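Records of this kind hold a single protein each, on a pair of labelled lines. With that in mind, the following record should read easily:
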Amino acid sequence: MEERGISQAVIRRLPRYYRYLGELLENGVERISSNDLSKKMKVTASQIRQDLNNFGGFGQQGYGYNVKYLYTEIGKILGLEEDHNMIIIGAGNLGQALANYAAFENRGFILKGIFDVNPRLNGVSIRGVPIRMMDELKEFVRNNEVKIAALTIPKEKAIEVANLLVDNGVCAIWNFAHTDLNLPDNIIVENVHLSESLMQLSYNISRYRQEHKES
């Protein structure tokens, strides 16, 4: 299937489709129309059809979508049919919270290691994965075919560590550090700036209050 210039907005919606379809499967729903799916997702039926048409459509007129088939196909589009070895750099509160999120494995993201600089954490296990020291990082990444690294470290160290990871074969970084990473174009970076998300929430609260005050 040829994917032609898929917009980031469409790609950001795909995991939502996948999650909602998974919930439908758990509830025993076998098929669903774009109209019914739109009500659950608060996205127009037209938008859903346009999004899915980027990848072939998957629906049948008068029938809608086969939930299991569409769930499986979106999983393939998202690359979830193969396993991805990942590590977490930074075993503070956020790093440990991510490590404790067992649903990663259900999506094919296999946590292979956790790294930190705090010697008091050396050897502590989170869900069976021991925390290691940073001096073990290079060899570990190379020996375990690690392709994804989550950075939950202070921004002052993030760029240095990111470059170290890239030099040793990591090709994708899930960046929770409060800084932008200037990495080669072939490295995939997904930034998660929690404070920015919170500020957007604050803006929306303020806007909602202002609109209702005026009305």
The chain has a mean pLDDT of 91. The two ends are 50 Å apart (CA to CA).
